[in-house]
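INFO batch 0412 | record 1 of 1 | parsing
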Amino acid sequence: MTTQMDIIRSIIRLELQRAYGQVILYAKDCQVLSISIQQKTKRNISVSTLKRLFGIVECPYKPSRYTLDTIAVYLNFQSWSKLAEIHNAEGLSSSDQEYWARLKKRIETVTEQSLTSMKAKLGEQLSDFQIREFAIERFEAFLNSPKTATAFIAPGGFGKTTIVAQLTGLFFIGEKARYPDDIVCLIDGSILFNLINLNQEIVRMINVFEMEEKNSFSNYFLKNPDQVKGRFVLIIESLCQIYHQEEKLNSFVENLMDIVAAYEHFSWFKLLITCRPDNWKIFSDLIHKDPRLKNKWFDVNFTGPANESINIPVLNNDEIRYYLKKRHSSRNVEKLKFYHPDIADVFNTPYMLHLFSSNQNPRDIRSDLELLNYFVSNKILVEPYLQEKSAIIQTFFVRSGYAKQSASVDKRDLPASAEYNKAFKELISDNVFYEFTTPGKYLSVKTHVKFSNDILLAFFLANKWIEEKGFDLDLFRRVLSFYRNHPNLQINIVKFLIKIAFKEERTKVLMDIFSVLENGKGSAFFPDTGLVNREIINTIGVELRKNKKVRKILIPHFAKTKAGQQYYFEGFSDMDSLVLFSGDNIDHYLENKQSDDAKIYGHFLKFMQYFLSSNRPLCRKEYEIFRTLSLDEHAEPTLAGYYYGAQLIYQSCFEDGTDPALMEKVFKKSISLFKKELQPASGIPVFEYIISYSLNYGDDFKNIIRLSRQVKKMYELASGKLTWRHQMFHLIYARALLHAGDFQTAVSLYKKTKMGAIPVNNKYYVRLRYYLIRVEFLLLEKKSSEVLSVIEEIKTISKMIKQRFFYDRALFFEKKAETL
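INFO prediction complete | emitting tokens
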């Protein structure tokens, strides 16, 4: 007959074995356990008591509540009643046969709490946006792959939280879940450490993160693989919000990589994280130290600039239309399209699209800055409760140390009179703030308040800094220094400061803006100088596109300064605006920088300006200039690509084909760069990429195939395979094979390509090149309706950016499509 003491012993033995993989059998085990309990709980249980408890000494015994509570605390439970309650509620016995189901039920509490927090952040966005097809396909492929980990990587506002919440519901939760037997542990990183007291499984997950093998339930499955009844899917949303301190986040990521390595042979364990490109660089750096770990990750990019690691695409036209039609009438949708034919970037991310759709005057919005200004001025800082809402927001900043000390504040620290409570509800309703609760000490409940989106937080802070500190270059330096341990917030605020400076035409500030990027005093502000520089340069480049008046003042000035030449002209080669205006700006650069390298770079851009605008006479002029230039033997690969590329384009498009002697020089240069390790085998063959792109314009398929095969022999190509450069290289190779008659290989290569994140200065230019190749494969499949749709897209974009070359090619294929 099973006694109460037998049940107690069974529960304790089972929990000890789960947690630490150990069983108490002997007196010496009790001695070790007694010491361990004292060290962890600061409470004492004697060795003799433990001997009686585990039946090593036979005698009538009823353990005290103190003893049982101490054992429970040692096992990471709040009390013995909590531990016994779980076992009693689930009808548990000492058998381990149902452990998977019991664990699944216990983990559900963590996932539910995280989903509640995420839904509070998202508000209507979660229901208004359809689940994205790319995310479903990618996550399904990952789950059924042999890989251990994957990541969704994108800046704020791209919908990472929405995607994760929707995938969790689709795959694991609810009556129609695809994989109901899998355990999903979803952890909202922004509230992880507020949740620790919520459920003891959180403590266990922390132990997993810390890789304390003896102190985690994962050790149980490693020792009892027969108990695995499905997959254990650990999803960490908002990785960057777990720790703001760079050092702690680095340590956390190292532990995650250790977990990935430890579970590489266990197909039942899967890890998905969401993070931003700058956080992902921590993973990339660790991969460079131990390349072996790369093979354990599914469909992510560890090389190249941070923006090329982004693997969440912006919303496509169909997704935008779906959302707008759900929230607006057909007539309003057409109005939106009419008023915004060329600023789709304003609403190509879920957060911005959601804000945009709530705007009643779309014709007033021409940028993300104007959109946020409208939202705050017309929806938030208005009556009723204008003063109260302003005071709540100001109190949030004060209590959080302007979001430096903490990302959230205790709701009790905010003003709480009747009027303030009404104002707070307005801020919650408008999705400015969201709140979440966690258990506190002594059975209390604590409510935390956070901004619903980092973009909105940064926008408020940028305006607050200007209001309090004035607007000059020192303001940029103060912000960079103040948030040096918060890189996401740091760069978001600085980007808004730049946008505001352009909108207000603060040319005196902007003329020397690049000084904050200079080595020395400025570099100390950046945990990752290269990433911050790139974000700032891109923001300045895009803003110069928009403001013609400021552009006329700044461009000549930048051309005369070393910083302007380096960061703007060479750091932001604006191919999208090349024909519109940036090609003409190169004249300023060439007038002020006379080095051979500058001439090759500048005249390549001038050549492309005239080529893309179909101006053959001026192309000829630039081609003749190239024939007078010489390439230094030690020139870096990109410059060498430009030098040969312009000549190859001209010869293949306007003459009888590429000069065989020039092509031999190109192939020799390719081998030389490889042998001199200017392009190491594990790196990215930039020179060959540029040459391939150039040969593609003139349909030189024979040399494209030869070059591509040479590259495959020399380079590993795995490091940058997800970058847009690599994907474009493979698309061009596939096109060459198509025209050479190798249809099967060509189609196979084409179907495997997926364009990665494209830099903002190349977005339309690269897309047009991709669309032209896509059209040829659609023609092969006789998909006339799709062909015509893509051709219309090419015509629309090429007219917008005035690149006649692409428009003429679209007309050529349009005639072909009409014959299908």
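INFO post-check: Residues 99-122 form the longest helix (24 residues).
INFO record closed
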